[in-house]
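Deliverable D4.2, example record:
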Amino acid sequence: THVLDVARGIERIVRLLEAGRDDLPPIHLASGRATKLGDLARMANAAGGGRSRIDRATNHAYNVSCFVGDPKRAGEILDWRTEVSIEAGVRQLVADFRAALDEAPGAGCPTGSPRC
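Output generated by the structure prediction step:
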């Protein structure tokens, strides 16, 4: 869930609390869309130009294999839903990193490496 969507949701919760609502149940500020870590890595790699190798690490017993937040209550109680897709959010994150690197030449790039 994109940080802007989360901020909008929290703002709506605060407004309800300020209006005297004190019986709010747990609310997931989530899209309800499952996204595997590998899929997320491929999105980030593609957004960055597709030049990185993606390595799959060994699963551990403590890893979460699946968690999908249910946005139903957020929609019903807050009239909230995500507005920024995961693909758009990842593309924006990569663009923001690139812009930060452009503002600080050499930052984040090992000496002698091609431009990040």
